[in-house]
Design goal:
By secondary structure, this protein is of the alpha/beta class. The chain is about 20% helix and about 35% strand. The strands form 3 sheets. A 7-stranded antiparallel beta sheet has the order 4-3-7-1-2-6-5. The longest helix has 15 residues. Bound molecules: FE2/S2 (inorganic) cluster (FES). The site of FE2/S2 (inorganic) cluster has 12 residues, from loops.
Length: about 260
């Protein structure tokens, strides 16, 4: 869908977990593909903030945000009816798999909610989906109920063991791989979350021989390719450095794990 710049009214804005809020905005016909994002204005702040939606239809879209500074604190104080400026949809999203594939969705922290939109699309396409989500503790788990409904199986991991497996999401994926491999050898992994988690998943995918698409949550200034503030390193063995820079906002935020220069 072509990028649009529009004003959207807040329909809902409520706390959903410790330190996390969910906001629903009017979409005015703008639709998101899984993995795409938008830039949202914050009253009193110059820079827009990037967010990825967990739900999208012709009337409304929703996203979850973590309280991490004055911008998100301000967002959490806004009431329904407040109007915000939105630029959407932006970026390149996930590649949707074929019907013979099995999808493995892996969400870490505030990267988890954006996978709900992907899981919804996969269910529409009858792609079997296994999901692993991780958080510091039970009180900061996000979208467990909706992802449980949309997945054949949901595995939860927490750092402190307060819910699910005590450990990280890479260990969570390892725990269900034998079951998935019995079903198909066409495994597609999709993930959004912190970079160390994405790197661990990239290494697992390389060792196990399946593909992984990773969505990066970089800080963004312009959001549409003009400032290079969101650059990440991409493998380029033909260059002296061994890498080139690409922009998360324009060339991503989703990249094939084999492209990323992790060193
Ligand atoms: Fe400016 Fe990506 S945020 S180039």
């Amino acid at each position: 869908m072509k990028k649009q710049d529009f004003t959207a009214k807040i329909l809902q804005n409520t706390a959903v977990a410790h330190n996390f809020y969910k906001m629903t905005l009017e979409s005015k016909g703008v639709l998101f593909a899984p993995g795409e994002f938008f830039q949202l204005s914050v009253p009193g702040h110059t820079l827009r903030r990037p967010f990825a939606p967990s739900h999208s239809d012709r009337n409304e879209f929703a996203f979850t945000y973590q309280l991490v500074g004055s911008g998100t604190e301000k967002l959490s104080s806004l009431s329904p009816g407040t109007e915000l400026s939105v630029i959407a949809p932006l970026g390149t999203g996930f590649t949707l798999p074929q019907s013979k594939s099995c999808a493995v969705l892996v969400g870490g922290g505030c990267g988890t909610p954006s996978l709900v939109l992907l899981a919804t699309e996969l269910q529409t396409r009858n792609i079997p989906t296994y999901t692993v989500i991780g958080a510091r503790s039970a009180c900061s788990l996000l979208e467990a109920e909706s992802l449980n409904y949309l997945s054949e199986r949901l595995v939860i991991t927490t750092d402190d063991g307060s819910e699910g497996i005590k450990g990280n999401t890479v260990e969570g994926v390892r725990s269900i791989l034998p079951e998935i491999k019995e079903r198909t050898d066409d495994i597609r992994l999709f993930s959004c979350g912190p970079v160390p988690m994405l790197q661990g998943l990239a290494e697992l995918a390389a060792a196990e021989g399946f593909t992984a698409e990773l969505s990066f949550e970089e800080r963004m200034a312009c959001g549409f390719g003009a400032c290079m503030g969101c650059a990440i390193r991409i493998n380029a063995p033909e260059t002296a450095e061994g890498f080139v820079y690409k922009r998360v906002c324009q060339d991503g935020p989703v990249f094939d794990s084999r492209e990323i220069y992790w060193n």
